[in-house]
Amino acid sequence: MNKILVIRLGAIGDVILTSAPLLNLKISFPEAEISLLTRAYLTRLAEMFSGVDKVLPFPQKASALDLFRMGEHLDKQNFDMVVDLHGNIRSFYLMKHISASVKVSYDKRTFERFKAIKLNKIDNKAPHTIDLYNTAIKEAGGKIYTRRPVLDLPFNRPRQLSFKNSKKTIVIAPGASYPTKRWPKKKFADLAIKIYKEYGCNIVLALTRSDADFAGLIAQIPAENKALFLDTDLVKLAAVFSEADLIVCNDSALGHLGSAVGTPVAAIFGPTHPTLGFAPRGCRDIVIEPDVYCRPCSKHGKKPCFRDEQFCFTLISVDSVMGKISGILTVKNKEERAIFIDRDGTLIKEKNFLSNPDEVELEENSIEALKIAKEAGYKIIVVSNQSGVARGYFDEETVSRINQRVYDLFVQGGVEIDQFLYCPHLKNAKLPPYNIECNCRKPAPGMVEKAIEQFNINPFKSFVIGDKLADVKLGFVVGSKSILVRTGYGQKQEKMLQKTMSPCPEKVLNNLFEAVKYITGALDREEL
To answer: Which of 11, 144, 445, 474 is surrounded by the most beta carbons within 10 Å?
Structure first.
């Protein structure tokens, strides 16, 4: 495939969710140029998707003639593949109009969603919309690595928040696309005040003009402990959200934006329901919802409530929301940062399926590198593909003995590695127990997500360092910045990278020591 077109015209939250399948497409077809057709007002946001090479704007109010002209224009681009992730009349027309050898559409689960809304047939194991998108990617011949939205924010970007204290920062976003999807504004205000009074947290308000009066409802919170962002563009709001510790919102696009920058989201669902596939998908996101028989009453929550009061919201109290988010508010420590380091060829010398602990040899200055990282406050997590187990070259006990040897050498040097994680699997390999398509073999995120849970790590504030493109891709999959080093297989991989259209790492450096110094700011970046 040389050129791939993905169609997802709107809305904001749905487009953010396409960041995952687009990245899967890019990793699966690294030599292809991938274009995303979306609404014009979303182009700047879509440019932050790692899987997109070009963003093609679609008019907000397109006439039939505009649609025809767009079809003619796209047909002349000679796309090899078209992936429809929208599934409406406009995208159907464009799919038919464009000549391409491969055309796939995603399954919207129309019948299942109808049963949930009209017959109250709730499937708590229903696939998420990202999973449905990914099914289309798989049908097109792609592989699935990421199942979470992810935006690529610039490294060392300017800070958006300037609170002078070190308290946690909570974003309150009371808006939603329809009034029927909004938890009462007064409850949001009472929640903000309660969070401030009980925990001293800083409060950030993400408001639209229609909710501008909300700021007055929390006047008792001191000015130095709150910040207001009114009708802020999505790119800037993404940066704001990335600096927060929690986002409390309705079932809205802002929940997906928070997930895509790695900040935990607590989303209040009233007339809508996660069974429809639109719940926030971050590692630590939660949905706050009532148990009422009439949910969901419509797909997007637009339908007016037929009952005397909107119980799906009135039954959700401020105290119940506080109870759900108290774990984040009460934990003393903020999220950890980590450096996820490949083992063979990065941390230690590459020995081609190393099986003898006595042959372990550290990369030059690797002990000094980890000392610098530790002093800067990073957890050190070693993540390694060990397909030699699946190939029958050695067993898992051998991997553990080598890891122990590596650990001991670094301890002797005065630095402790926090965790060793490895993947022993390889599809179509020799040994049946390991002959599987797993979720832990890099660039799949399984090992990183295990470390996230164990150490409360925010991957979006972390780094991946390795000598292979799988390590670079892993960084993009989990939302971390990645650095390719030239030790091990790094020089060959750098040449391969230059021949593809794969997302580029943050930096290509000579070794682990240089990489860590770059991360911690000890190297002059202009000289590298």
So the answer is: 474
